[in-house]
Hints:
By secondary structure, this protein is mainly alpha-helical. Helices cover about 55% and strands about 5% of the residues. The protein is built from 12 helices and 5 strands. It has helices at about 15-30, 50-65, 80-90, 95-100, 105-110, 115-130, 140-160, 205-215, 235-245, 250-255, 260-285, 290-320; strands spanning about 5, 35, 75, 135-140, 170. β1, α1 (about 15-30) and β2 form a beta-alpha-beta unit. The protein is globular. It starts with a strand and ends with a helix.
Amino acid sequence: xxxxxxxxxxGHVQLGNHLGALRRWAADGGPDDLYFVSDLHGMTTAxxxxxxxxxxxxxxxxxxxxxxxxxxxxxxxxxxxELGALTWILECTCSYGEAARMIQFKEKSKGQAGVRLSxxxxxxxxxxDILLQGADQVPVGEDQRQHVELAxxxxxxxxxxxGEVFTMPEAVLPPAAARVKxxxxxxxxxxxSTRDSAGVVFVxxxxxxxxxxxRRAVTDGGSVPAYEPDTRPGIANLLDxxxxxxxGDAASLAADxxxxxxxxxxxxxxxxxxxxxxxxxTQALLDDVAELDRIRKAGADRAAERGAxxxxxxxxxxxxx
Length: 321
């Protein structure tokens, strides 16, 4: 059973990514599960090429530093040739109507001028990611479930028309993750791509930066901390983060802190200790360029080898080569 998960380098890895996904991937991933940096997906909108390249390298280092085995990690663009060929085959299998029905395309293109064609076709590239590696399951949120269903439909259509090549993937909901909200705007999720990073704690922030961000975190009415997510989302967010880092219960932890200041300091301390080993290992990897390049190349070679027979079979059956 192979599960495939990816993370797009649209910004620096932040606390929500770590608590909600990366830490779980490292702890609970099966021996055949695969993880990749989906940098090609970061090209569907205007981007800075040098920054995208730097962020992809940084994310690779963070994944390894979190504890995911390097043998199960690769960078998407290192398979650009393989994915390009398979994406073309799948685009020739997909109809325009299927691509245009994707909800994310409708939402992201609404009111935009000069929408890139890649925004329409990237679900087909996502299908190529999944099918090339022979993934059985793809853990995704509801916003990506439709894309996995497209991959499944294309695999079924190709297999039925040209010959059995592709595994039929299934979308699965990942286990419930820590709910991390923006410290400055606790009604929205913390995001690595937000323009205002004042409320975002990044994995590579130093301890002083982390303390400053938590001390400035938005709080709500009331004289003492209490876990009331609907009416006091700022305090609830701090307690959720503390619980995720310490293994405690958010509602019960509220009683341990007589003031907002004490709670903010406690959360900052917990987050600093949670992120410290990841930050230190990531920096060590980024400083050792030769070793990180070696790991990256080995991951690319393994990923290409895993998909080679599927790609060659698909090309032959489709009439190419």
